[in-house]
């Protein structure tokens, strides 16, 4: 039987992220860091508003859900699992995520219309980096399926992993709503920079850290002997 699900979010210390980036040099986390930093750079230089950022993270969330379902359908485990159990787990995951993403998409779309967001900016933001996130997650799946030494995967862990991984994207959505409310309320200073200012960039940096931390948790790399 599969282990009982756990939704605990335990972020690794920064030194583990540093290790995988600069000592182990895992190409999957390096590419993930680069696509996140590229998104931040483009958002800053092109002065994207919060709507473009929300659509990007919404698309990344969908990518994580798709790749996670593929992981479940191709699970490598020593447990004796029936195909019905594997398929039902993948279907349940996709049903939950699809419903969640549909609700969020409607929510963001309504807000975009209400606040007269520029559709060209949104489309540029969405198309320029969302494909990059999908390719990164696909590359990560193929790379780690080839080189991970421990093939014993747990069905409950695979089923719950995307829930934990997309948590920052949902927080981003709530932050966007909060910033819009601040803007509408005309709160001094905060309201003026809410849609395109440094607060949004700082949150994107925080999201990048959590994204990298979740990746490290999912793909534990062996430490070199000379690493403390």
Produce the secondary structure layout:
Elements: H1 14-23, H2 27-45, H3 50-73, H4 83-114, H5 119-147, H6 155-165, H7 167-184, H8 190-193, H9 198-218
Plain-language structure description:
The protein is mainly alpha-helical. The protein has one domain (about 15-220). It is built from 9 helices and no strands. Helix 3 runs parallel beside helix 5 (about 120-145) and helix 3 (about 50-75) runs antiparallel to helix 6 (about 155-165). The longest helix has about 30 residues, at about 85-115.
**End-to-end separation:** 36 Å
**What would you call the structural class?**
mainly alpha
Q: Number of helical segments?
A: 9
Computed over alpha carbons, the radius of gyration is 19 Å
Low-pLDDT ranges: 1-8, 189-195, 223-228
Helix-strand topology string = HHHHHHHHH
Average pLDDT: 79
What is the makeup of the main sheet?
Answer: none
Helix content: over 70%
Tell me the domain tally.
1
Instruction: Tell the overall outline.
Output: globular
The portion of residues forming beta strands comes to under 5%
- The beta-strand count equals 0
Keywords:
mainly alpha, disordered N terminus, 228 residues, single chain, disordered C terminus
How would you briefly describe this protein structure?
The protein is an all-alpha fold. The chain is built from nine helices and no strands. The longest helix has 32 residues, at 83-114.
